Every structure is written in C-alpha cells, then in structure tokens.
Amino acid sequence: MSKDKEPKKSVPEVDLDETLPHQISSPDFKGTGTKMEAPFVNEHGVVIGDSFYDSENSPLNNWSKDTNPEVMAGEEWVHPTNDIGWNTNMNRDLIEKKAPPKEGMLRHPTKDSSYGKD
After folding, report:
1. Exposed/middle/buried for residue 86 (C-beta within 10 Å: 0-12, 13-18, 19+)
2. pLDDT at residue 21 above 90?
C-alpha cells in the first residue's frame, strides 16, 4: 500500500491550555508567543510528541543488535513543543522568560543532562 493511500493515524491531544501537565518540569507555553503543536506522524509511521514513545513502528519497539541508532536521527524525530529537552531549566527559561542561555550551547558529549526530567 502506498504512503498516500495508508489510513491516517489519529494522534492524541496532549496539551491542556498550552501546558503539558503530565510532565512536571515541562514549560508553560501560555502567553509566550509559541503555540503548542499537536503530535505528528513522521515518515516512518511513528507518532512524535505524544509523550508515550510507544508507536508500533518505532525502532525503540523493534530494536535488535542490527538496528543502527542513526535511523532515529534528524528533525523528523523531534517535536517542536513536546520534547524532553524543554524540561531542562535552561530551556524552560528560554521559553518562559525569553532568557538566552547563560551556558554555552554545547553540552557534555556523553551525558544526557535531561535524564530523569520527565
């Protein structure tokens, strides 16, 4: 079946009044000028931005020793307003206070500074 003839996946609404209440550290987008965006289905059939990370076609659900992690690289895997990166203090300030980051833009190459923030 071609991609344009496949049935469209429905994606849930995950925001409530321009916030993500299910993520305690998530920024409040209300009044910031940034509009919350709905989850979307990327070209691989994976729902991005629903906070469930459980799409049937996701490489995370089909991982093996032969899976190249590079398959999940690129903008099509990042949601503009419901991404774990927003939960860091620096990025919350960026949206809520419109404050540029105090730190440099580069982070530690092997440590995930957002781990445990959702």
Report:
1. buried
2. no
Distance CA 88, CA 66 (A): 32
Locate tokens 């987008």: which residue?
29
Statement: residue 95 has pLDDT above 60: yes
Q: Which two tokens stand for residue 46?
A: 């994976």
Residue whose entry in the numeric block shows the structure tokens 């906070």: 51
Q: Which residues pair with 118 in a beta bridge?
A: none
Q: What is the pLDDT of residues 36-59, one digit of tens each?
A: 888 999 999 999 988 888 888 899
Distance from chain centroid for Cα 9: 18
HEC sequence for 45-108: CCEECCCCCCCCCCHHHCCCCCCCHHHHCCHHHCCCCCCHHHHCHHHHHHHHCCCCCCCCCCCC
For residue 106, which amino acid is it? Answer: L
Digit-coded pLDDT (tens) for 5-20 = 444 566 767 777 777 7
